[in-house]
Amino acid sequence: xxxxxxxxxxxxxxxxxxxxxxxxxxxxxxxxxxxxxxxxxxxxxxxxxxxxxxxxxxxxxxxxxxxxxxxxxxxxxxxxxxxxxxxxxxxxxxxxxxxxxxxxxxxxxxxxxxxxxxxxxxxxxxxxxxxxxxxxxxxxxxxxxxxxxxxxxxxxxxxxxxxxxxxxxxxxxxxxxxxxxxxxxxxxxxxxxxxxxxxxxxxxxxxxxxxxxxxxxxxxxxxxxxxxxxxxxxxxxxxxxxxxxxxxxxxxxxxxxxxxxxxxxxxxxxxxxxxxxxxxxxxxxxxxxxxxxxxxxxxxxxxxxxxxxxxxxxxxxxxxxxxxxxxxxxxxxxx
Length: 335
Fold this sequence. Notes:
By secondary structure, the protein is an alpha/beta fold. It has 9 helices and 13 strands.
């Protein structure tokens, strides 16, 4: 197994469909990015889910669909949606908070679902539950272990913030103990709830460049040495790296129940979506939309980060950026 991280460059024809089939959730995580005013509050019926999946099906191309919420397993027809997506040729992932409503584990099979991903933001209840909710750690890990025992391919997502970065290293033993072989480390984005800093939290929720680089690559390497495949955001470009925007090269679509379709997740708090679904047709929006910015080349790297998260960039005394921010979809892999 390779223990040297590699940057996964964008490839033409790469297709990922992030499908929010509802926005409702039983939890109220402090960093949730869902914004009902911008994303809608409805749950799509199964007929609509199937019609919208057809819009993004591309026979002959490798395409991934990730069912999201809210909490997607709250939708009673999710198993049917999973099976329908497979008939269209998608590789299918479900991202869950671990509650797995409607006996989801027993209504799909490991052959029908490529990955079942669980969100954990701490190695124990003392760290996880203040972020995600009381009792969540026990419920999530119980269902995670059941999924592993039933033969599902299981992954875990950990969103790094100031509240839990000091405990990221402890996740290696936790994942090993549960038999998890795939680990996603995420950087917290300033959208949804995390865009508003909690009262009295002057330092915000995002970690600094120094904290990220000192902790995340090292933990990823430790996890890889333990036999776990790790994916994490690049975030900061090396001095000799060229900036590239996924919106220019790859096909990534972030679909919400109100019909908005974004290409850049940083934009999801704003009505600048490139597309919309109207009468079950995919329609290109006109005007000042996100894709108008993708081709811009600036010293700070990602133009959307510069516009929407300017506090994440540091400048020297002459006003030059001290580092460049990568596209938020640029990943590194190890293991």
